[in-house]
Amino acid sequence: MQFDDRLATVLRQKASASAGARTQYRQLLDLLGRPREGRDPSLLAAARLRLESLAETISVRERAEIIREQGRRLNDPELVAHFAEGEPDVACATLSTARLTEEQWLELIPELPVRARGFMRLRRDLPGKVEDLLERLGVRDRALPLPDAEEPLVEDAPTDEAPVAEEPEPEPEDDDIVDGEFTEVDETTEAEPVHAPATAGGSEMAAAIGALAAGIAGAQAAARTESPSASDREPAAEPQPQPQPQAQPDAQGEIAALRHRIEAFQRAKEEKNAGGGASNDDDRRAAAPAEPDRTAPTLPFTEASIRQEELTGFGFATDTTGTIDWADSFAASRVMYLSLPSILPDEFAEAIALQQPLRAVQVKLEGGPAIAGDWILDAHPRFSSPDGRFLGFAGGMRRALEAEEPGNHSDRLRQLLHELRTPVNAIQGFAEVIQQQVVGPVPHDYRALAAGIAGDSARMLAGFDDLERLSRLESGQLRPAGGDADIAAIFRQHVAQLIPMLQPRSASFVATLGGVCKVDLARADAELLSWRILATLGSAAAPSEKLALTLETHAGTAQLIADLPASLHGSDDIFAARGKPLSVAISAGPFGPGFALRLARAEARAIGGSLRRENRQLILTLPALTANEPAANQRGGVPEHAV
């Protein structure tokens, strides 16, 4: 074969169906698995990419079967390394069937993933150097080696330890009774001598045994403290040595030996804590207990293990009477069967019976430190579907946060706004640079986009200014600049500006604004106050709606009385912020009418006035500086009754 174009021929074919994809996968695997010199590297790269794309349409199990069928023709180390990093089934099929030379295996195995090396242990046809390399890398068969000769399942041969003779069960003594129960102790097992000093190895073994049986050791120590001393009892007769028959090891004897070792460890520890001054059992019992080891693990029901952490919130559900019958697992033991009517304030006493939702209700719970204190309760009634039967309430409780001083809240908000202004100012500056072509020509499309970004940035900065102004006004850190602005003239100016905008909807203001009325405000602040109120009312006006405006002056105060539009009259709280302005053409601010009225109320209060709602009217009261003058005529201003 002078020209090998098989790889190019396979790549020209399109494998649309699943059967065609599997056939082409086999062909590419056969061609790539047997490397040949002189192949075009671009064709090899395209073939590997096609192999990857086909792998997405063929399942892992089918690919593993194809590789096992053609595994003996996998002689390319790069392809083997690529498959070894794939799915476990594909890697196992590749590494268990690939045929590489010894030099190729020695070079490839250190680069394989650790998981893939484990599949090599299944092979028994690898060269010796390769197996030695796997052994050095820690890859070996997981199965335990079989013994050289068959061994019986049950060991019948005698052990090296001395067997224990079977004797009649003795009567229980006082030392063998712990907490009213008889504890078996094998008297024939020789106990370790107490007076012998423990070696380093013995101390480590005793410490390990004592850590494993800490509960038994504690019980034995308590029993020795409560039992009478050895001097008050009759000395026990030493057992006579008797011939012991050959028998299997007794499990009870091993347990008894373990107990004796635990007691020896406990006695050595007590002797060490007592300073070595006690030389016998009576002195050791009389010695004062040493300070407990803080590094040892805590036993159940100790002070450290039962320390309670304060809860911050939990969920619950009640029955139809308002009694909690389910709660989160970490709070269930503290609040189960708690009756909500017993902790609710008097104004919410009938909410359970009337099946009304409870929102942000302050309650107080009594109990341990984890649950006691003030809580905020939220709960909603539950009803079955489809019959609508009342099932109870479901909700949650959360800890009531401590009240924060208004000044701290204002400072935190100002800091947040400062952090927001910095990136917005940078964005606005770069947008203006692009829009004005400062550094060079810019396509008009990009200039239009930059102009829109600059405008949005300006609106965001204006909103930040309004937020900061409201925060400082409500916290008493800011007072509007004083002056002698004519509030009546400012109202007439803004009414004249708003009437043309309201005419397409046939809406209008009916204004009776009187003469000159000066208030203690600078003209700029007075214009902002007037625009916030009038623009909010105008943006909320419905088609063909006429809103009356009346400015009166009496007893040193100026009072503006305005009719509320129907859209605002239906709101429970007109000073609550809304998501967006009601009208795009007329806007008092980026945060909607509620925020604009709230800011106007804060400005009025800062100079000793007020802004309140009475039925269907909005009333602004400001302290006046002078008496009113004759009303403006048709030639000097807008008409008094603008329709």
Describe this structure in words.
With 643 residues, this protein is of the alpha+beta class. The protein has helices at 6-12, 18-33, 41-55, 60-69, 77-84, 88-97, 102-108, 114-117, 128-136, 200-212, 214-226, 251-273, 281-286, 332-335, 340-343, 406-435, 444-474, 487-502, 523-540, 566-569, 592-606; strands at 177-178, 181-182, 313-318, 324-327, 358-365, 373-383, 390-399, 485-486, 508-512, 518-519, 546-554, 557-563, 610-614, 617-623. Helix 2 packs across helix 3 (41-55), helix 4 (60-69) packs parallel to helix 6 and helix 11 packs across helix 12 (251-273). The longest helix has 31 residues, at 444-474.
Task: Summarize the entry for a quick read.
With 643 residues, the protein is of the alpha+beta class.
What is the tally of beta strands? 14
User: Terminal Cα separation, in Å?
Assistant: 100 Å
Total number of helices: 21
Kindly name the structural category: alpha+beta
Radius of gyration, in angstroms, nearest whole number: 45 Å
Fraction of residues in helix: 40-55%
With strands numbered from the N-terminus, the spatial order across the biggest sheet is: 4-3-7-6-5
